[in-house]
Amino acid sequence: MNFWEYLGSRHQQLLTDAYQHASVVFQCMVVATLIGVLIGVVTYRSEWAGNLATTTTATLLTIPALAMIGLLIPVVGLGVPPTVIALTLYGLLPIVRNAIVGLRGVDPSLVDAAKGIGMSRVARLARVELPLAWPPILTGIRVSTQMLMGIAAIAAYASGPGLGNLIFRGIASLGSKNALNQVLAGTLGIIILALLFDAAYVLIGRLTISRGIRA
C-alpha cells in the first residue's frame, strides 16, 4: 500500500487525530496566553520580578518533554491531563518574555498622557499599554504555538490525543508495511496544522494591529 492509498483508507481516523491535535494545542495556547500575559502584567514594572519570571519559564522549557510527561503521569494519570499541563507550561516562555518586553517598550509619555486625563491604572493598562504591546505578545503566541505543535506529538507517550499516536505506532511497528506511512502521515499532518495556525495568526495580526503600529 502506497502513501496515497493509506491516506484514502484511513482518512477518517486521520481527520479525527488532526482535530484532536489542533484542539489540544489551541486550548493549551489559550490558557498559556492568559497566564503568560498575567505574569507579564504583574512583573514588567520590576526588573527583578521580570527576570525571575523569564528565568523560571525558561527553566521549564529546558525539561525534556518525555521527562515532563513522565513526571506528571504518577500525579494526574494518563491521557489528556498530563498533556494539557505539559503543553501549557512549555508555552509560557515566549508569551511571558514578549509580554514583558512589549509592556516595557510602551512610550512612557503616552502612559503619562492617559494618566493626565484621569484614566485609572486598570484603564491605562487595558486601553493603552496592552494594545501597544499586542504585536510582540502575538509574536510570542505564534512562537509558542509552533513549539507546541511538535511537543504535542510526544503526548502520545502518555496516551494523549493527536497525531503523535500515528508516529508512535509507526515507530513501534517498524518493518511492517504501513509503518512508514503512519510516521509520514503524522508528521505531515503536524506540519500542515502548524502552517494553518500560523496563517490564522497572520490574519489576526492584520485585523487587530493598527497600520500605525505595524509601520
From TrEMBL:
> A Pfam family in this protein?
BPD_transp_1
Q: Which UniProt keywords apply?
A: Membrane, Transmembrane, Transmembrane helix, Transport
| Matching InterPro entries | ABC_transp_perm/SBD (IPR051204), MetI-like (IPR000515), MetI-like_sf (IPR035906)
**In terms of domain of life, where is this protein from?**
Bacteria
TM helices/strands, residue ranges: 24-44, 51-73, 148-171, 183-204
Membrane topology annotation: Multi-pass membrane protein
Q: Which family does it belong to?
A: Belongs to the binding-protein-dependent transport system permease family.
Q: What is this protein called?
A: ABC transporter permease
- Protein's organism: Streptomyces edwardsiae
